């Protein structure tokens, strides 16, 4: 059964600046973990002092505001890709070392091998 979205109005103590933006979110619980999610909520409008949101479910709601624009950084993306590649290469070498150079039956080596496999995955 789909429910119709219902409007919510949230005010803020300080007016938003020209470069600032706000997003309507609700708290989504998954197991014992939770996070803010845009699923089921949309910002319909408002002004610099309030936001009007439409949500299709009952939950804990919030309006998140970016205090300054968050530009996409090519340098950060490059560093992340290089770091991830090097990490995977080192984990692969560690896995190969644990598999090919096995000392006499040791629980420590098995634990390190499984840890490396989990991190690689």
Automatic annotation (TrEMBL):
Keyword Transmembrane helix: yes
Name recorded for this polypeptide: AGRE1 protein
InterPro entries: GAIN_B, GAIN_dom_sf, GPCR_2_secretin-like, GPS
GO biological process: adenylate cyclase-activating G protein-coupled receptor signaling pathway
Entry membrane topology: Multi-pass membrane protein
Keyword set, alphabetical order: Disulfide bond, Membrane, Transmembrane, Transmembrane helix
KW DNA repair (keyword) present: no
Subcellular location: Membrane
Originating gene: Adgre1
Domain GAIN-B: 1-71
Species in which this protein is naturally found: Rhagologus leucostigma
A Gene Ontology term for the protein's cellular component: plasma membrane
GO molecular function list: G protein-coupled receptor activity
Pfam family, one: GPS
Upper taxonomic lineage: Eukaryota, Metazoa, Chordata, Craniata, Vertebrata
Transmembrane segments: 78-100
SMART domains: GPS
